[in-house]
Write a structure and sequence with these properties.
Largest sheet: none
Distance between the termini: 89 Å
Order of helices and strands: HHHHHHHHHHH
Number of helices: 11
CATH superfamily of the largest domain: Tetracycline Repressor, domain 2
CATH topology of the largest domain: Tetracycline Repressor, domain 2
CATH architecture of the largest domain: Orthogonal Bundle
CATH class of the largest domain: Mainly Alpha
Radius of gyration: 22 Å
Number of domains: 2
Shape: globular
Number of strands: 0
Length: about 210
């Protein structure tokens, strides 16, 4: 049997993209479009009032593609502010340790994030933006409280959960300000493990202890 004829169009063309390269390029373009639509929606309407369907519609993609890339609305919010962990993953991991280790795990997560490479750039950038723009302040509050701390607190201590979550989030942000922004000598120079222990005990009480 004669070999099938090969068209010149089938031959390798220098500089031509492979199907895999084309799909990767299209995927990156879709990610960028989704993030741009999400930032605009979050800035305009806030996190709570924005739906994944709306973001997908504005980006011109299916909602399933948004979920494929970012997992959830919380994951998408983290991506828009370039936060280095996925909120949904953190919530699952912290709760998996049980209610008696909530403070310890939350302290670990946040201090490890801030201490990466000795440069807490993402959090500082977001904090500076929050001081200048109400929309950025809203996103930071929702990232810390709505997406991370509140789901954990609601799962273990339904009594006054909103107040507990706000106290924990403000305590975490307060330590961040003192260590990296205002640089109080004792806090900035303290060993990270010591700070974790101090932070863990306070957060644990805010999550599970009496508030009176």
């Amino acid at each position: 049997m004669a070999a099938p004829k090969t068209s010149p169009l089938d031959a390798d063309v220098p500089g031509a993209r492979s199907p895999d390269a084309t799909r990767a390029r299209d995927g990156e373009a879709s990610r960028a479009t989704i993030l741009s639509a999400a930032r605009a929606a979050f800035d305009d309407k806030g996190y709570a009032q924005t739906s994944l369907r709306e973001i997908a519609r504005n980006a011109g993609v299916k909602p399933s593609l948004v979920v494929h890339f970012y997992g959830s609305k919380a994951g998408l919010l983290a991506a828009t502010v370039e936060w280095p962990f996925d909120p949904d993953t953190v919530v699952r991991e912290v709760l998996a340790m049980g209610p008696d280790h909530i403070g310890e795990r939350l302290a670990d997560v946040f201090l490890e994030t801030w201490e990466q490479d000795g440069r807490p750039n993402t959090a500082l950038t977001l904090l500076h933006a929050a001081c200048e723009r109400p929309e950025a302040a809203t996103l930071m509050r929702e990232l810390f409280t709505t997406c991370v701390v509140a789901p954990i607190v609601r799962a273990i201590a339904p009594e006054r959960a909103e107040l507990r979550a706000s106290l924990v989030a403000s305590h975490l942000l307060g330590l961040h300000v003192g260590r990296y922004l205002l640089e109080f000598d004792a806090i900035a120079g303290a060993d990270a493990d010591l700070l974790k222990q101090a932070l863990a005990s306070t957060i644990q009480h805010m999550c599970t202890g009496p508030l009176w």
